[in-house]
Input
Amino acid sequence: MADEASEQRQFIVQSMRKFALQTQTVEFYINNEITHIMSNLEQFSGHLMKIANVFDIATINGIRARIMTGYRFVSNDKILNLLKNLSKISGSPSEFKCNGFTFPLVAKWRPNLTGHNRMVEAISELHAEVAGILNLHMKTRCTGSPVILWMPILTINVELMTKDSSTFHMPQAQATVPFSDIFVGAIETINGTMEWILLFLARHQLMQKRLHAEIIEVIGNSPPSLSDRSRLPYTESVQHEVIQLSFRSWSLLIGGD
Output
């Protein structure tokens, strides 16, 4: 079991690192999603809006979908709805505690009452959908063909799935689990951070103006780039402050110190 976890974890880290090094490709995907989300936010100009899950599609498409599958998700996509369901189940502090994260015995004794069974069912459905994507890539991938720059990481290690000795071999191990982890892993963290940034700036108008002034001065009307980070010290500081606040608040919600 330890060897399986080690191989799968190593694959995930290496694959994401390889793709992250392709800065221009990542920036293209993220900037594309920024355009979409700005169009959606503009329709709420001057009106009240619900912040929760507003960044779901953009996060999944910019950070996960393009990297993993090579295509964009739409609002009625089944995987997107499954991820929203998982977020809803785990997003409640009371259910988070009772689902086994804080009080595992409660989930064992009362799986229906605590929502544990709903969580297991939702995860199983997500695994089934990811398995379908894997099977599609297995059928369309040409063994031995070179991995090109924009190729989703699902196909990078596809040859391993045909080796009996590999933990990614379908009959031997749950190859869908590590790929599902990639889907879910950072989505909640990124969504939470984005939502906190939006709320934080809405409550601090002077900070919002200073942030906007720095971005206009450094970037102007050009698309943002990772190379701009060193020239945006105030923006970077605000980002780190919001991350700390979001983690601290979530810790308090679930009963942490």
